[in-house]
Amino acid sequence: MAEASETRITMIPIDSVDEIALPNGSWSKMLLTGDTVSGIVSSLGFSVFKPGTELATVSHEVEEVAYVVSGAGEIRTEQGSVQVGEGDAVHIPARLWHAVVNSGEQNLVMVFGFPYPAYPPTERQG
Prior knowledge:
This protein is mostly beta strands. It is about 0% helix and about 45% strand. The protein has a six-stranded antiparallel beta sheet, with no helix packed on it. A three-stranded antiparallel beta sheet has the order 7-6-9, with no helix packed on it. The relative contact order is 0.26.
């Protein structure tokens, strides 16, 4: 674990963190967490969703923010779908049931974060 302080910048190379396997060969990595940076109060992750991937519907205890690096897809909620694409910033309120879907023809690549020092407590449907 890297040590954080007010005068030191911590860098975590993406290759130093294990992949979290997702459906259809997709994956995520939690890069900045309490496991990788001592004393951190938020977290940052990186995901690659292959074309045709549809994640299970989830609800996080805290809000989620994300940035679409490349590709296109949608965030499905009970109220409908929101189309997302390269260059879009996304805010998902706490406790909103949602699912990420890559409905495009190329990888949907996203950076995401939570105001929580790890992947937050999450409920899953189905």
